[in-house]
Amino acid sequence: SLVDELFAEENYNDMLDVLPTRQREILQLHIEGYKNDEIAQSLNVSYNTVRNTISTSKTKIRVLWSTFMD
Q: Is the distance from CB of 36 to CB of 51 less than 8 angstroms?
C-alpha cells in the first residue's frame, strides 16, 4: 500500500542519515544510477574507495533495516 511504501521510504532515509557524510554521498550517487568510475572521478577518489564504500554502506543499511523492521 502507499502508506507502507511511504513508511519504508521514510525509514530508509532515516537510515541513510546514520551514515557518515561521505558514505551517504557516494551511496546516493550510486542509487541515482551513476557508475562507480563516474562517482570516483566526480568526487576525486579511487574506484576501489567507491566500490568498498558502497559495499560497507549497503551492509550497514541491511543491518539497520533488519533491526528496525523485525
A: yes
Q: Which residues of 17-53 are buried (b: 16+ CB within 10 A; e: fewer)?
A: eebeeebbebbebbeeebebeebbeeeeeeeeebbeb
What's the whole-number mean pLDDT along residues 19-37? 93
Q: How much is the pTM?
A: 0.74
**Cα 15 from chain centre:** 9
* pLDDT confidence tier of residue 69, bands split at 50, 70 and 90: low
Question: What whole-number distance in Å separates Cα of residue 39 and Cα of residue 21?
Answer: 15
Mean per-residue pLDDT, 35-54: 97
C-alpha–C-alpha distance, residues 23 and 68, integer Å? 20
Q: Which three cell numbers stand for residue 20?
A: 557518515
Q: Which amino acid is at 64?
A: L
